[in-house]
TrEMBL record:
This is Delta-aminolevulinic acid dehydratase. It comes from the Bacteria. Gene3D superfamilies: Aldolase class I (3.20.20.70). Belongs to the ALAD family. Coiled coil: none annotated. NCBIfam families: PRK09283.1. It is an enzyme of class 4 (lyase). Its EC number is 4.2.1.24. Homooctamer. One of its GO terms (cellular component) is cytosol. One of its GO terms (biological process) is protoporphyrinogen IX biosynthetic process. SUPFAM superfamilies: Aldolase.
């Protein structure tokens, strides 16, 4: 018998049965890896659909506990909160961001009371509060750095004082992590963690999120003078290095799926807790195909999330968090 006619190695052998596929599996996805972003709105009795994000809703505070209950039952570790601010409360300077009774703070207090075991992540940036929809203050048509940091610091302390466990600056101003860390410590909030949106790109994939917040129509121009150029990766490593040196406990790459290479490089270079944001546009894209029957819902949700794990992400902010947790439990 001519042994040469057989392949020496058959990688298909390990794929033959489910049991070996399980044994040789290199990565896992669990509920521990899921963070659920939620949109809160003023008023009462309001649960409204975000049209470009089928299945995602904006919820008023009186409905919030019922909305979050399934996440608590499924043991999802953390929520990321996003407030929708009515135009009447928005101004040039995003003043509402520092109001101790703003929607974000009221939502945080309510959730901490109802679900003390769930971690709360607070986005820090001025775009929910500014009349122009930018993440910082504008002078002569330019989003200025240092004056923006001053108000972002106040926003962060305000949120932490209301019970937000993890401050997540998404504004991309330079030096804000260090300033926020110092201000938190001075305020006695030494255990408030910081998850920096370290590598956040000026991306077209945020469109549906801006619809959800109602900041899309307000936005003048684009965010290219502070968010990163999609062409760059070395720069992402510099952003991450700086944020870590300023005291970030965890870092994030955003968007997610089109930027898996960035996640992989960050994870390999720094070996620190690294998160990915599967953003609104990624959700909208997958949902559009799912609703058309072009993609298999359950499989594509799980595959998209496993891809983040394979790239090295510890966890994923995903609008599919509830669906994924249910599929993992089934
Ligand atoms: C605000 C912020 C944005 C997102 C999270 N925080 C939008 C933006 O930068 O314009 C996008 C999230 C998503 O698209 O799901 N700074």
């Amino acid at each position: 018998m001519n042994i040469g006619q057989f392949p020496q190695t058959r990688l298909r052998r390990n794929r033959h049965d489910r049991f070996t596929r399980r044994l040789v599996s290199e990565n896992t996805l669990s509920t521990d890896n899921l963070i659920w972003p939620i949109f809160v709105t003023e008023g009462t009795g309001a649960v409204t659909d975000v049209s470009s994000m089928p299945g995602v809703q904006r919820v008023s505070l009186d409905r919030l506990a019922a909305h979050v209950e399934p996440a608590a039952k499924l043991d999802i570790p953390a929520l990321a909160l996003f407030p929708i601010t009515p135009a009447s409360l928005r101004d040039e300077a995003g003043t509402e961001a520092t109001n101790p009774d703003n929607l974000m703070c009221r939502a945080a207090r309510l959730l901490k009371k109802e679900f003390p075991e769930i971690g709360l992540i607070g986005d820090v940036a001025l775009d929910p509060y500014t009349s122009h929809g930018h993440d910082g203050l504008i002078e002569d048509g330019y989003v200025v750095n240092d004056p923006s940091v001053e108000i972002l610091v106040k926003q962060a302390v305000n949120q932490a004082a209301a019970g937000i466990d993890i401050i997540a600056p998404s504004d991309m101003m330079d030096g804000r992590i260090g300033s926020i860390r110092t201000a938190l410590d001075v305020s006695g909030l030494v255990n408030t963690r910081i998850m920096s949106y370290a590598a956040k790109y000026a991306s077209a994939f945020y469109g549906p999120f801006r619809d959800a917040l109602g900041s899309g129509g307000l936005l003048t121009g684009d965010k290219k003078t502070y968010q990163m150029d999609p062409a760059n990766t070395d720069e992402a490593l510099r952003e991450v290095a700086l944020d870590l040196s300023e005291g970030a406990d965890m870092v994030m790459v955003k968007p997610g799926m089109p930027y898996l290479d960035v996640i992989a490089r960050v994870r390999q270079e720094f070996a620190v807790p690294t998160f990915a944001y599967q953003v609104s546009g990624e959700y909208a894209m997958l949902m559009a195909a799912i609703q058309n029957g072009w993609l298999d819902r359950d499989r594509v949700i799980m595959e998209s999330l496993m891809a983040f794990r394979r790239a090295g992400a510890n966890g994923v902010l995903t609008y599919f968090a509830l669906d994924a947790a249910r599929l993992l439990r089934a």
